[in-house]
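Comment on the following before class.
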Amino acid sequence: MLFYINLETCLNQSLPIDFAEEPQLITCYAAKLHLSKAQSIVNPNRKANPGYAPTFEEVTQFPGRVAEMARKPDLYDVVAPDKSWMNGLPRLVFVSDMGDAFSRESDVPFLKADVLPAIESIEGREHLWLWLTKRPKAMGRFAKEIGGFPSNVCAMTTLTCADNVNLRRVDHLRRIDAACRGLSIEPLRERIPASKLKLEGIDWVIVGGESGALRHVNPFDLEWAVELREHCQEHDVAFFMKQFGRAPHWRAQPIKLKNTHGGDWDEWPDEPNLKCREFPNYFHKYRE
């Protein structure tokens, strides 16, 4: 696919930063993977691993990669005892989890010629494609150009707080011509009041705390997640609690977890009851 991340969106502190000395300041998991898997300014002789962009900030096209994924077998009849919430669903494929396909206009022809045909293929229609962007306005233009997204695409955008820039993304998302739309609220760095988050036209909300070195991540108050879960329930929107992150707090008290991402819900305390991993009804009915 396409790899692209603006480093300024992945750091808790302002540039410049010596990444060789302070690699833990990069909290975006895609950036971390590229530091260990891509080319290295520290080790100039190291080559990028297959499937990784040469450098984290370098937009790179990988023709045929989506088609390869489309040929993967479906997962309808696969039972996952450790992930019961996945049972009965088609294969879910995250598009642009390592970057943003809409970071530059010049890649649109590639998306139309290489990515879209694979998603629309007979094999590709066995799966649901979760297409995430921080540029939903650009995604909306693309959807309009192609006559709307195929029925197996869930258009998604990400937000981390309640400022105008983040909330405008939700407004742009709800205008996209897609059968299903979702929000990835991860990492949630501050409270998003329910009164500010309009869920009309939204089918799914994913919430998660921040991962990374403990001394650099933002605290994650579980009260924020409880408020969003109740907000989703009131509007019949599926809520998916992905992870607590590295620094979860409940009632102003830190919660210590062995899993550094806070993603093992067997560790989660009974209060608050956030063991909620729902998918939109559309996902369950898609096979029909």
